[in-house]
Design a protein that fits this description.
Layout lengths: L1 E4 L5 E5 L4 E2 L5 E2 L7 E4 L2 E5 L5 E3 L6 E3 L2 E3 L7 E4 L2 E5 L5 E6 L3 E3 L2 E3 L7 E4 L2 E5 L5 E2 L10 E3 L2 E3 L2 E7 L6 E5 L9 E9 L5 E6 L4 E6 L10 E5 L4 E5 L9 E8 L4 E5 L2 E6 L19 E4 L11 E11 L19 E5 L8 E2 L9 E4 L5 E5 L2
Length: 372
């Protein structure tokens, strides 16, 4: 309290000082003696005169005039994959658990370090920054990329025929509906059948193998129009059993050509509708393509194997050619399936972002390891 002596020689309180009363009876100071505070990371103590005095700068944080903490507020760090930020009291707080990688206190990356994948036929590994690396495609003697590793094993889908109706079903690519297109695959027939479906491209067209009851046509491939119920043409060359062959249906908008092992095998010049017509095949309710069978009849299922399937925009082949041993993706490829995952009912796409396929039938077609 600040006091003054009145005319009667008595002390009178003038005011109660908020902080300090000096010896001259005057209020002064900025703080209450012995109180503490922080100025940034500098602790301060209030002296007897009511003035703040700086103490030693804190290494990390200052709280209530005392040095504390284990980190500087605002700093960031990683603790494993956890992103942490130093709070105002100098303590680490987890701000986010990173799904892949934490670097310099921030989440980054697109993959888990050490994981592997295939980008097409290129094996890739995830580096310590969570980024995919790898640009060299697999080649002989291990030409197949599987689960991020080059592998020598190749698989085909095997169809057992009979009442199983095993088939691969693929949604018709919207970009090809009503447009010129090419369908090609590697095929191995294992036995003669009267009539077996190789592929059914939509509501209009089916390709069949003709078996022993067809006399002079025995062993030929027949292209059939489901709408009119007529045979468009039969292949001029025969299909051998237990041998791999490359089969092509190539349509340029008016001319549908078939090639077997790179050699012209027949055509129809009156096919104006597209191979891929946007219609559901007979027995189906979905706009799909089928390979190996249809769901509508028990005696049309393939007994054989399909290894690699490619569907392209435009007429890829118009004259004889050397069949590619391995079907690759290029600018015209819309569907590419090599079946090399070797298991599962969903057939992976070998075109990034391309459509997948589904194995149907009871039981399902199986995967078999093959060498061509």
């Amino acid at each position: 309290m600040a006091q003054s002596c009145n005319v009667n020689g008595q002390w009178t309180t003038n005011q109660t000082c908020p902080y300090v009363c000096s010896g001259a009876g005057v209020c002064s100071g900025q703080c209450s003696p012995t109180s503490t505070r922080c100025s940034g990371t500098i602790p301060q103590s209030c002296d007897a005169s009511g003035n703040w005095s700086n103490l030693a700068d804190c290494t990390y944080a200052c709280v209530n005039g005392n040095c504390t903490g284990v980190c500087r507020p605002g700093d960031k760090r990683c603790l494993g994959t956890a992103s942490q930020t130093c709070d105002s009291t100098g303590q680490w707080q987890t701000s986010q658990n990173c799904p892949y990688v934490c670097s310099a206190g921030s989440c980054t990356g697109v993959c888990t370090p050490g994981s592997a994948q295939c980008s097409g036929n290129i094996p890739q590994t995830c580096d310590q920054l969570g980024q995919w690396s790898g640009s060299t495609a697999c080649s002989d003697p291990a030409p197949i990329c599987r689960e991020g590793v080059c592998d020598s094993a190749s698989y085909a889908v095997s169809f057992q025929g009979g009442s199983q109706r095993g088939r691969v079903v693929i949604a018709q690519p919207p970009s090809l509906i009503g447009k010129p297109a090419t369908i090609e695959l590697w095929l191995r027939l294992r036995t003669e059948q009267d009539y077996s479906t190789l592929f059914n491209t939509g509501g209009s067209f089916r390709a069949h193998y003709l078996g022993p009851v067809y006399g002079a046509l025995r062993g030929a491939v027949s292209f059939f129009n489901d709408v009119s119920g007529t045979v468009l043409f039969n292949s001029t060359s025969k299909v051998p059993l237990n041998e791999w062959l490359h089969l092509v249906a190539s349509h340029d908008g008016t001319n549908l050509r078939m090639f077997i092992n790179g050699k012209f095998a027949g055509s129809s010049t009156t096919v104006t509708s597209s191979l891929i017509d946007g219609k559901a095949p007979l027995g189906e309710t979905n706009i799909v393509m089928q390979f190996g069978s249809t769901p509508r009849a028990n005696n049309e299922s393939l007994i054989g194997d399909i290894d690699e399937l490619r569907i392209s925009s435009g007429a890829r082949y118009t004259v004889d050619f050397n069949p590619p041993a391995r079907l690759e993706s290029d600018a015209t490829t819309v569907v590419l399936m090599r079946f090399d995952q070797g298991s599962g009912s969903t057939v992976q796409s070998d075109v990034p972002g391309g459509p997948t396929g589904t194995l149907l039938g009871t039981p399902l077609p199986t995967y078999v390891q093959v060498t061509r």
